Amino acid sequence: MASALLRTPLHDRHRALGAKLAGFAGWEMPIVYTTTRAEHRAVRERSGLFDVSHMGQIEVTGPAAREFLDGTLTNDLGRIGPGQGQYTLLLQEDGGVVDDLIVYALLDRFLIVCNAANVDPVRTSLTDRAPEGAEVNDRSAEVAMLALQGPAYEAPLAPLVGSPAPLALEYFEITEDEVAGVPALVARTGYTGEPGVEIMCPVSGAGRVWDRLMAGPDAPEPAGLAARDTLRLEVGYPLYGQDLSRDRTPIEAGLAWACDLEGGFVGVEECRRRKAEGPAERLVMVKLLEPGIPRPGCAVLAGGEPVGEVTSGTLSPTLDVGIAMGYLRPDVASPGTDVMVDIRGKQKAGRVERRPLVQTSPTKAG
């Protein structure tokens, strides 16, 4: 018998707003409230508010915490100090991706935000490897997370924060403050390509934060996971389970920049080898040159022969054309290369493009 879907503390509010709800990573989540296009455009042009409370939050504390994480996660943790975050990955010994993460350095702990479907494997992997002096605690059930995204994100946030600090954050910085009187961590991060913040607060305070953000004259548009997917795909952010998996290393995914190959993280030997030899495939962006919507599993062809496969695809609300991410042979993976995408037996012309595919609003960090 299938287990019941989990619900976020904002579930009743999503129902009241008429959201279409569906299962995602074991959670019943809002997929769309009005239309994906309207919610997408609101984030690109103004602001949108996402409930992402299904994401995991894992804390690592203790005197050995930094050294432990620096030898476990792919990026160089020495590059960040208290109040800063970093994109990184957790790998298997063979280099396969367990999950892509954001790790935040706080004054007394490290906070790891992971994908909802991977909370258990991330927690287990960290717990199994943690030495004496490093303690791993899963706080996912205690923490709600809201993502306020878009060029006008500051307008609904400004009247609700306890100090100017959350409004002064640079990209990938984090601060502890209050939002609508609720203790919260506010991070200048997101998954849309637009400026914005992610607000992490106790589950008990999530409703108050949501209500106050949605009540003002500059209230954001509620946005569901469908718009979150189209937004991230336009800027080329990979999605675990589609573009990232245990079957490929960060090298194939174009994420060598997030790997300290001089370090000693788990899986580094295989990453070094694949970097030196050159990957057998590369994750790229493709934009269609004629009508069609690519979907995961669609074959990509060049010169009449298969050269790869789509891992994520959609209709871009900004460009009004089909776009995709997928793994291609290196010889056809350079920007400007013409390819064909097989969509339900019909070949559609496309071209490999640089990411991002759309011009997004500048961040404070430029």
What is the level-2 CATH architecture name of the domain at 6-53 and 141-234?
2-Layer Sandwich
In CATH terms, what is the fold-level topology of the domain at 6-53 and 141-234? Gyrase A, domain 2
Taken in chain order, the helices and strands follow as EHEEHEEHEEEHEEHEEEHEHHEEEEEE
Give the structural class. alpha+beta
Characterization of this structure:
The protein is built from eight helices and 20 strands. By secondary structure, it is α+β, with helices and mostly antiparallel strands. Among the domains are: 6-53 and 141-234, 2-Layer Sandwich (Gyrase A, domain 2), CATH 3.30.1360; 280-353, Aminomethyltransferase beta-barrel domains (Elongation Factor Tu (Ef-tu), domain 3, Beta Barrel), CATH 2.40.30.110. α2 packs across α7. The protein starts with 5 loop residues before the first strand and ends in a 13-residue tail after the last strand. The mean pLDDT is 97.
Main attributes of the structure:
six-stranded antiparallel beta barrel, 8 helices, alpha+beta, 18% helix, Gyrase A, domain 2, 366 residues
